[in-house]
Design a protein that fits this description.
By secondary structure, the chain is mostly helical. The protein is 57% helix and 0% strand. The protein contains 24 helices and no strands. The chain is elongated. The protein starts with a helix and ends with a helix.
Length: 400
């Protein structure tokens, strides 16, 4: 496994971006990761592309807007919006029709940087279809009237028609990208421009530059969820769009009461914060070395290196569980006979349970593993494992 892929699996996206700035080889590996077999690697590679700081990467980025995984398309839309390049306008327009709210949001933000005027996220499907289809058979005066009708500024109309005449094959300009990054945040039509003033860290989170009405609506969002929302996006909200965003978020995320637990389970959190291991936690290589030798030798190197940090921990836990029954068997060689009918009934019960949770094909594999060996593996981890990883785990648990 390449060093770039390993770093992406460990969510060291910033480190990959910094290395790609300095090395053409690393940059080539990063671009190749945009089409990696793992959707986790693809998503993190796209996030790392923003740390390169070179807009020419959008040529390769745009292809990921057609990815079947929502998380990958979200990362792609975020990166395209970050670089504000005219040649990405067609991709951002198509993203306005995406089934995922976050994809649409990032595409709308990117278009607002390039073509100011309308609230892109609120355009009708008919307007979006006309833009995406590039106004078939419409003369320029009709196009201008339509663009003016969706509140695109006169400057924006001229820019759009100029780019359209070049089929949006516009030369990438690094200086223009830097200039746009240094500009003040865009305030969309209808939003109140409020001066950013220092606030004290008391009570609910507040964001400088947001009106009191919008802030009151956003206060309905749990603090841990709001922390994941970019401040520059929040400053663009009007009361209407804020209400729409909050309603969407509260439907998409189930809010649960906190219960005291001896040990917290890992929770997948969307963008863009890095998830780092606690200080003193073992590295991936140290975890691999903890796996019993006979188990390591039964797994191919490619499969072993492809396992995530959590999967390695689960594998170690399962081998420890497997060792316990064997030790007990040595102490008590005589085992009471179990009726065949009861065995069949128990297997049928497990098969039905596993099928409901993980699907028939994965259930058949899980049924071949003694139930006690699965105790150390969380259900969420089993659900995320693909069939190849599960087969490797099964092979590792088989007695040698």
């Amino acid at each position: 496994m390449s060093e770039t892929r390993r770093l992406l699996l460990e969510f060291e996206t910033e480190e990959v971006g910094i290395r790609a700035q300095k090395s053409k080889k690393v940059r080539s590996a990063l671009v190749s990761a945009f089409s990696d077999a793992s959707d986790v690697v693809r998503e993190r590679a796209l996030l790392a592309s923003m740390d390169i700081g070179n807009p020419t990467v959008v040529i390769d980025l745009a292809k990921a807007m057609n990815d079947e995984e929502e998380s990958v398309r979200i990362a792609c839309a975020q990166a395209l919006a970050f670089y504000h390049q005219p040649r990405t306008v067609p991709d951002l327009l198509r993203g306005l029709n995406d089934t995922n709210t976050w994809v649409r949001s990032h595409c709308a933000a990117g278009l607002s940087k390039l073509l100011r005027g309308p609230i892109w996220a609120r355009l009708s499907e008919e307007d979006i279809e006309l833009l995406v289809s590039n106004y078939p058979d419409l003369p320029e005066d009709r196009i201008r009237r339509h663009l003016a009708g969706i509140n695109l500024s006169s400057e924006g109309i001229d820019r759009f028609l100029n780019w359209r005449s070049q089929d949006f094959n516009v030369e990438i300009d690094v200086t223009d990208f830097i200039r746009e990054l240094e500009e003040t945040p865009i305030v969309l039509a209808g939003a109140e421009a409020v001066a950013a003033t220092p606030i004290e860290e008391e009570g609910p989170r507040k964001t400088p530059g947001i009106s009191a009405e919008v802030e009151e609506i956003l206060s309905e969002v749990p603090e841990e969820l709001r922390a994941t929302l970019p401040e520059e996006d929040l400053r663009r909200l009007t009361p209407e769009t804020a209400r729409e965003l909050v309603d969407s978020l509260m439907v998409s995320f189930e809010v649960k009461e906190e219960k005291p637990e001896p040990k917290k389970k890992a929770i997948k959190v969307r963008k863009v914060k890095k998830v780092r291991r606690k200080k003193g936690a073992p590295s991936r290589q140290e975890l691999i070395e903890r796996i019993p030798v006979e188990v390591r030798e039964s797994i191919s190197e490619d499969v072993l290196q492809g396992l995530t940090y959590d999967e390695l921990e689960a594998l170690i836990a399962s081998t420890m569980e497997a060792a316990a029954p064997e030790a007990r068997a040595e102490e008590k060689p005589e085992v009471e006979a179990v009726a065949v009918e009861e065995e069949v009934s128990a297997d049928e019960k497990r098969l039905k349970e596993y099928t409901g949770k993980y699907g028939e094909e994965k259930a058949q594999l899980l049924l071949t593993i003694p139930e006690g060996m699965l105790v150390g593996i969380p259900e969420e981890q089993i659900e995320e494992m693909d069939l190849e990883t599960l087969k490797a785990l099964l092979q590792a648990l088989e007695p040698t």
